[in-house]
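Continuing from the previous page...

OK, I double-checked the sequence for Arrestin C-terminal-like domain-containing protein against my notes and this is the correct one:
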Amino acid sequence: MGKLQEFLITLKDNKVVYTPGDSISGTVKISTAQPIQCKAIKVNCHGSCGVTNKVNDTDWLEEEQYFNSSLSVADKGTLKQGEHIFSFKFLIPATAPTSYEGPYGKIMYKIRAFIDTPRFSKDYKMEKPFYMLNNINLNELPDIYEPNTSNITKNFSYNLVKNGTVVLVAKTDQRGYIAGQVIKVSTEIDNQSGKNTGHVVASLIQKVTYHTKKPTHEVRTIAEVEGAGVKAGKQAEWKEQIIVPTLPQSSLAGCNLIEINYFIQVSLKYPEMSLTLPVHFGNVAVDPSLRPPPKARTASKTAPTPAPRTNPASPNSVNASAASPNPSSSPSLPPRPAPRPRPRSMCVTPSAPPAEPDMRGAGDRQSEEIPTKVHSQHQGPMSPRFSYAPGLVFPQSNTNPSAPHFSLSTGATIPFFTEGNGPAVPTSCPFILPPDYTSSALPHEPPPAYEDGFLTT
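Thanks. Re-ran it with the corrected sequence; updated structure tokens here:
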């Protein structure tokens, strides 16, 4: 490095994860081989967010700054040959959001040191990242204790003239989880048709929105469970579990450019139908003992329906009028003549499809249990440009081999997926938001009646 032999930033106790409102302190170590003229030595603490619409691009389209504090640790003078140590300390604002790193944006925090030299001399700078974790207490979310259930009904046609109905109901045991907990997914499928359904799939999906003039949506399938289909006219229940891996929080409070959402998507391959259940991920688990008591029903809902009033002077007037109607108000009509039967020689009886059993009235059907076919947890090594798991320890530069490593969230990325330092390539993942709740665009015409098929000669 020429005159400068060592330029190093060290945080106190080698701490790299901080909470909003903490103070961050450390030292700047400068070792010189010969004297260096300097105008000032400054230390800066900076936090900001930037988003773009190109993968791994740092030319931000939108930016926001959370804090930018500077401290001068040495004034104009000469740095003598040898070792110099300067101390610094900053206060982190309480509104700083949790750190995040994704392919389309970052929330980043840095400590930067500068040696400003006179004109025509080389300036020196060094930076060290640190990470912010704003703990989320799931018990403070307003809807965390509400039941998490959804249902959808699909009417479809098959074999050209047959119509069927499938009812899909799904629910989870709760709305909020922390890493390591299990999401219990319960699904009920009522196949009220004469055709077998396709297999059922439950997926844990992450959706990250990067807000620019034209927002970019990054959607990943974190975990996926696949079950068998339901036979014609059967009612079945499917229960499965998804382990929550280490993932970014559901909320980046204080950040207006990046939004993170998670949901469970349950879908059928045939007929095509799906529903979603929102879930939240935080740092403090849901405590069932803090569940508020159910709200008392309002008086309007529980008030009995008043009986119709009657005239006290003639209590039997209503019954009397009903028993003896006015004959003039309903004149008798002459009976219609019986239709003359058509000659058999002039009609042809068309062939009809076999009668379809009515599945809707079968309320006494036994509910079966759907077996699980595939259970895949997309967990593995990934590039650190993807979002990290808050609450864990984070990587330092390669110059410090003893530093701990990131724990990264995983899964395919839409519309791009990258591995290591390779180029981004498109992915064929079918789970793209928003889910399609629309029915088939084909017309559903009922089969012709028998009378319409008679031919006359």
